[in-house]
Design a protein that fits this description.
Blueprint (H helix, E strand, L loop, with lengths): L1 H14 L16 H4 L1 H6 L6 H4 L11 E4 L3 E5 L5 E4 L1 H10 L7 H4 L1 E2 L7 E2 L5 E9 L1 H4 L9 H20 L5 E7 L4 E10 L1 E7 L2 H4 L3 H4 L11 E7 L13 E2 L8 E2 L8 E6 L10 H32 L1 H30 L2 H17 L2 H7 L4 H24 L5 H6 L3 H9 L5 H18 L3 H18 L7 H9 L5 H10 L5 H9 L5 H6 L2 H42 L14 E6 L3 E4 L2 E3 L2 E3 H7 L11 H8 L13 E6 L11 E3 L5 E8 L17 E5 H11 L4 H4 L3 E2 L1
Parallel strand pairs: 12-22
Antiparallel strand pairs: 1-2, 1-6, 2-3, 3-10, 4-9, 5-9, 6-8, 7-8, 9-10, 10-11, 13-14, 13-19, 15-16, 17-18, 18-21, 19-20, 20-21
Length: 722
């Protein structure tokens, strides 16, 4: 009964404030009809909630996919043609690139289905339906049980729900918590694994401006790429086969050439990753003052080393382009996030809010009995968490996340050593060897030993300087002491000795793995450090991190309930959690600082103004220059110029990359790819005056496909609205 009342209470709170600022929030599609559609229509939306989400007929949700592991994509033709961001497809484009066929530099365009490139390991996932399962998930839980017992019950209930709903269907499912665990929704998915690369502009278009322009407005980046989803003969998921046929979606987005103007309605429909809008001040303080500064410093060193190597050799540029982008994206976001949190005085505002909610709690005996001590445990838990979180994040970044790469790579062989010691005659060993050789060849394809040496020296040195001895990996301490902290003096010797920095050595070792290999492996310093770091994370950090987070989860649930009771007139939206969401607002510029106003769009003219052949990220392709000189713009203009990007006040975050930006008529007008620098802290504190999502104008994508690439045949399969 308590769970039913809790869910009802949440719904009543959501209904209580229909005039909440609508440009903030990431809303649950199944609830749009009840809580949002009127506001959306007041802002200009001309369709119904069922046009967005329905289980009874084709709708927008049927054209949207989780692309790979962390982006969104959407179908734009009845033949499975999919568009997403260039940076979402970047690693795949890079994997097909060689010095002879450098698709990163020169772009790639399939001129027929036979030329489309398969991508092993890439999948796209469609949402079939979602439903509220709060009552079933929370059945058997209660305040009389401790947090760990409640978690076990919840985990069991979720497992039962998932098993029941997917049995015999071929579908997969997840159950996600909303409102800090006060509500739960089930999501049922269907995944397609044959996804082929159709087209991508050169990086000088798709990544124009590079890291300099990343997270910055004005932006002139043609951040898009094209793929095609393939299916078996019954239009169902099938492993890659030449006999597969283009997938026939239930719905695909019409593409609009009508353009955008200030004040137009926009909607972003996609899979935002993670936000934390309702956390206490201690959480913000932990990120801003304890974790972000150290991680920014560490990744600055990585980026400097990679950039120097990439500028010295075209092959290294190909090998490390995707790696550097992955490292730099979060690095620059952390910088902007810290600046935004400081500018908005977010910690201080949270503290003021906590003071007010504490006074409200204290003014009522029942509230005081339930929540009177709710903030004190946060102080104690975050005092622990900030150390554990920093050490966990820093250790992973040094040893495994594009840090000392040969050290991180060495961890992969641990499974073979463990299996051989337990079952030396097992048939599993031969298949594991094949996998390790294959994955090893992929690793070395994008590996440069001299670059990795520099990364190794920098990472090991910074780890010793920034992580106190009591929090260091024991194997690292031994190694540090043996070389007296002078890692540069031993780097050449170590890289000559290890099997993890040379492809031939590595392959021969795996092929001949046997009785004597275990001893040799244990004498490899990189293997010892890698296994030691992994063990340190697993045994020293994770148990306490799990304990702290479990206690925080229970505390957050109560604090979320208290906040919603405290602000009954506020329309709360749930934090992002990698599930399908709707964000809506309007096209609009903003003041970045005193007397500096940014308009809502950029044009091809701006690209030419930034053109600089001496700088890789600003070297405009000659063909694009020629199209501009000759004003060969086709039908893709507005006021005589080719539009490139635009901004709106939709609330987005990571995972929304590649999301469709939709106009009032439900037509595709752009592809979301970034946020403006001044509002990049919106994961933690939305700033309505400056939080802007950045999108490529779909007309620029069509212009590049048609006029630049000469692949206009692709437009023939789209539904284009003039």
């Amino acid at each position: 009964m308590r769970n039913k009342l809790l869910t009802l209470s949440l719904l009543l709170i959501l209904l209580a404030a229909p005039f909440m600022r609508a440009d903030e929030g990431m809303w649950i599609p199944i609830l749009i009809e009840k809580y949002n559609i009127q506001l959306m229509q007041e802002k200009g939306f001309k369709l119904s909630a069922e046009d967005i989400y329905s289980v009874n007929r084709a709708c927008m949700k049927d054209a949207i996919v989780i692309f790979g592991g962390g982006c969104t994509g959407e179908l734009i033709s009845p033949d499975g043609l999919l568009i997403t961001n260039h940076h979402c497809g970047y690693g795949l484009i890079q994997s097909h690139s060689t010095l002879e066929n450098d698709y990163l530099t020169h772009g790639f365009w399939a001129m027929s289905g036979d030329e489309e490139l398969p991508n092993p390991g890439l999948s796209v996932t469609f949402l079939k339906w979602m439903e509220d399962v709060t009552e079933r998930v929370l059945k058997g839980t209660g305040s009389s049980l401790n947090p760990s017992d409640n978690e076990k019950i919840i985990d069991t209930n979720i497992s039962d729900i998932r098993t029941e709903v997917t049995r015999g269907t071929g579908y997969t499912s997840v159950v996600r918590p909303f409102y800090m665990g006060n509500q739960y929704f089930l999501f049922v998915y269907e995944t397609y694994n044959d996804v082929r690369l159709v087209g991508a502009p050169p990086s000088s278009i798709g990544k124009f401006g590079g890291e300099t322009d990343n997270w910055v407005w004005p932006r002139h980046t043609g951040d898009f790429s094209l793929f095609r989803v393939y299916a078996g003969r019954e239009n169902k998921p099938a492993a890659y086969s030449k006999d597969n046929v283009p997938y026939k979606p239930a719905y695909h987005f019409p593409v609009s050439l009508k353009g955008v103007k200030e004040g137009d309605f926009t909607m972003v429909f996609g899979y935002p990753g993670t936000t934390s809008q309702y956390v206490p001040s201690y959480h913000i303080d932990m990120l801003k003052n304890h974790i972000n500064p150290k991680m920014i410093e560490l990744r600055t060193a990585k980026i400097d080393i990679m950039e120097e190597a990439m500028n010295s050799d075209p092959l290294i540029r190909i090998q490390y382009s995707s790696k550097k982008s992955g490292v730099a994206n979060a690095w620059k976001r952390w910088i902007g996030e810290n600046q935004g949190l400081e500018r908005m005085k977010t910690v201080e505002k949270k503290q003021e809010y906590e003071k007010r909610i504490t006074e409200w709690i204290s003014s009522d005996p029942d509230r005081k009995a339930r929540w009177g001590n709710i903030l004190q445990p946060y102080s104690e838990l975050y005092a622990e968490l900030r150390d554990y979180s920093l050490v966990n994040t820093y250790t992973n970044d040094v040893f495994f996340t594009r840090g000392a790469e040969a050290v991180g790579f060495a961890r992969n062989i641990r499974a073979l050593a463990t299996l051989y010691e337990a079952e030396p005659e097992s048939e599993k060993i031969s298949s594991l060897k094949e996998y390790l050789i294959s994955s090893g060849r992929n690793f070395f394809r994008d590996y440069d030993r001299e670059t990795d040496k520099k990364l190794f020296v920098a990472m090991m040195t910074m780890y010793g300087n920034n992580i106190s001895t009591g929090w260091q990996v024991p194997e690292y301490i031994s190694f540090h002491n043996s070389c007296k902290g002078n890692f540069a003096s031993v780097a050449d010797k170590l890289y000559a000795r290890t099997i993890f920095a040379d492809e031939d050595k590595y392959v021969r070792f795996i092929e001949g793995f046997g009785r004597n290999s275990i001893g040799k492996l244990r004498s490899d310093p990189f293997y010892n450090m890698s296994v030691g770091a992994a063990s340190f994370i697993e045994t020293r950090l994770r148990p306490d991190l799990s304990r702290i987070n479990s206690e925080l989860q229970a505390l957050n649930k109560e604090y979320m309930t208290a906040q919603m009771e405290f602000e009954k007139g506020r329309l709360f939206y749930p934090d992002a959690n990698s599930t399908l969401r709707v964000a809506y607002g309007n096209i609009g510029g903003y003041f970045s600082r005193d007397a500096v106003y940014h308009t809502h769009y950029t044009t091809l003219k701006g690209i030419m103004e930034k053109d600089n052949p001496a700088i890789y990220d600003y070297d405009v392709p000659e063909k694009l220059r020629k199209l501009y000189r000759e004003k060969d713009f086709g039908r893709y203009t507005q006021d005589g110029e080719v539009p490139v990007c635009f901004i709106a006040n939709n609330h987005t975050t990571g995972g929304n990359s590649g999301s469709p930006v939709i106009n009032a008529d439900g037509h595709l007008i752009g592809i979301n790819f970034d946020r403006a620098w001044e509002g990049v802290a919106s994961d933690l504190a939305f700033n309505p005056e400056q939080s802007r999502n950045i999108s490529i104008d779909i007309r620029y994508a069509l212009f590049i496909i048609d006029k630049f690439a000469g692949a206009g045949y692709l437009l023939d399969e789209m539904t284009i609205i003039e």
